[in-house]
Amino acid sequence: MSDTVEHRDVHLEEDVIADRKVMAVLFGTLVVSVACVLLAWVLLKMFSSWEAPARPTRPSLAKPARSLGELETSLFAGKEEMPRHVLEQQQALESYGWVNREQGVISIPVARAMDLVLERGDGGEPGEPRGREP
After folding, report:
1. Element (H or E) spanning 31, and its range?
2. H/E run at residue 110
3. Is the Cβ–Cβ distance between 106 and 97 less than 8 Å?
4. Three-state DSSP class for 62?
5. Stated pTM of the model
6. Where does the pLDDT of residue 19 fall: very low under 50, low under 70, confident under 90, or very high at 90 and above?
7. Closest CA relative to residue 130, chosen from 92, 120, 69, 60
8. Letter string b/e over residues 98-134, b meaning 16 or more CB atoms within 10 A of that residue's CB
9. What is the overall mean pLDDT for the chain?
10. pLDDT digits (tens, 9 = 90+) for 38-55
């Protein structure tokens, strides 16, 4: 008895890529892509001619049109152009005053408070009470 088996009826086919099918798929993809681009172009031209109706604006809110390269100066406005609440907050941070007169708690400017912390070395560990003990 032999361990090898011979198959005489086996027929092997070559691995062949169907060129016509591949070319047909590529051509179909190209046609669909071109059609989509043309459709998008037509829709863009059609809808760009439509304009939304102008909404009326209140004169106080209307801003003049700016030219290209014009600087937005309201970002760098001085104190006279700042909103009132911002000026009040800034004044509270830069002034002395009483927080609680009965308990002897005062408010000092932030810059002065930072200088005092540096001079006295009151910057202990986070969570520890700071200041003088009574």
Report:
1. helix 19-48
2. helix 110-120
3. yes
4. coil
5. 0.30
6. confident
7. 120
8. eeeeeeeeeeeeeeeeeeeeeeeeeeeeeeeeeeeee
9. 76
10. 999 999 888 887 766 665
